[in-house]
Design goal:
mainly alpha, globular, 375 residues, 75% helix
Length: 375
């Protein structure tokens, strides 16, 4: 923002432009996971991500930011997360929840460690140097995809072996899912946490300022967020395998609602720790519950296509959140004031999701008795 003289609203608008383009692209790019093996798809995605980090370090004008952000979003939180989640949900059946929980650790650890590391590094190497280091890290890790997935199974073979069907004992296509009231009733829940969670981290400097904290103090709260997120990942993984997703899907956003209300109530660091812990609970559940929900309710044959739509919604939310909240800050409503409306939205989304899932769960097939976990 300082380098290009951007306000909160201007920076949010540029971020939103690049991210909306990434969301639109995810709708068709995510379908590739139904046809291409993870090893063949994942390595190029990470390679492009690394090159984009290098591009980000060389930006000389604000108009270049949406292009770099588009590539960062489509390859990073878009395709990289999508590929990993679809692979776990498709490859594992009896232990699907636990597999998703373990696969989500990388994202959670990154959220905890990288902000502190890079805020500290910026003092020494600046934000441009930080992006160069990021690119080198991703580039170094890319070959591991080929090493660890030498004997990876193909999506086509998994689809024929795992007959993991959804409601009414069948596999649902993406077009069919879009016609169901269930999808539209859970849509606000899918949209809200990534939208406002991203806005929270996007506006961390602003939040620190209005609460009288230093930037390093608010960044120091992030490990608390990750600790609660990881804890709920593990618990939800076992809960999904034991009880299914119908009991979990409607309620995972409600923790964030309470978290934002805590931030509104007081500006002390202790309250901040409680608030960010509650937001972390939602993040932990979000890492496992929705993808397992798609597989359980709609089957695995078209999981890549369905999940790509959900990922596009998530990416869309992460675009709208910073753009909307940044605009509201520019017109005089700080983020703390906005949190009351955010909490109300999340409570309403929870009610709608509960109505939709309650009406649809009766159409699920009886739980399959699987004696051997497919690995």
């Amino acid at each position: 923002m300082s380098a290009f003289s951007l306000s909160h609203g201007e920076w949010g608008a540029l971020y939103m432009t690049g991210t909306l383009a990434a969301a639109a692209t995810m709708v068709w790019a995510g379908v590739l996971t139904d046809h291409i093996r993870v090893r063949a798809l994942g390595a190029p995605v990470l390679a492009i991500l690394a090159l984009t980090c290098f591009l980000m370090s060389q930006i000389t004008a604000a108009w270049m930011l949406p292009i770099a952000i588009f590539l960062l979003r489509i390859c990073g939180q878009g395709m990289a997360g999508h590929i990993a989640a679809v692979a776990m949900a498709r490859w594992f059946v009896a232990a699907r929840g636990r597999a998703l929980a373990i696969a989500s650790f990388g994202y959670a650890v990154g959220e905890a460690v990288l902000p502190i590391v890079f805020v500290s590094l910026m003092v020494w190497i600046g934000w441009r140097g930080s992006w160069i280091l990021s690119g080198l890290m991703v580039l170094a890790l890319t070959p591991l995809i080929w090493v660890f997935l030498r004997q990876e199974r193909t999506p086509q073979s998994i689809a024929s072996e795992n007959q993991s069907v959804g409601m009414k004992g069948r596999h649902w296509s993406r077009k069919e899912v879009l016609r169901l009231p269930l999808f539209w009733l859970i849509l606000p829940t899918l949209l809200g946490p990534p939208a406002f969670g991203t806005a929270f981290f996007f506006l961390q400097v602003h939040i620190a300022e209005i609460n009288g904290w230093s930037h390093l103090q608010i960044v120091g709260l992030f490990p608390i967020y990750t600790a609660t997120a990881v804890t709920l990942m593990i618990i939800s993984g076992f809960a999904i395998d034991r009880f299914g997703t119908a009991r979990l899907m409607p309620f995972y956003a409600v923790f964030s609602a309470f978290g934002y209300l805590v931030f509104v109530s007081t500006n002390g660091l202790l309250a901040g720790a409680v608030g960010i812990a509650l937001i972390g609970l939602t993040s932990g559940l979000q890492a496992t519950v929705p993808i397992a929900f798609w597989a359980e309710f709609f089957g695995t044959r078209h999981l890549g296509a369905i999940k790509s739509l959900a990922t596009a919604i998530m990416v869309f939310g992460t675009a709208v959140g910073p753009g909307l909240t940044g605009y509201l800050i520019d017109i005089g409503m700080n983020f703390e004031q906005q949190m009351i409306g955010i909490a109300a939205y999340l409570f309403g989304a929870t009610v709608l999701a509960f109505i939709g899932v309650s009406a649809a769960k009766g159409e699920l097939p009886p739980p399959a008795k699987i004696d051997k976990i497919r690995t």
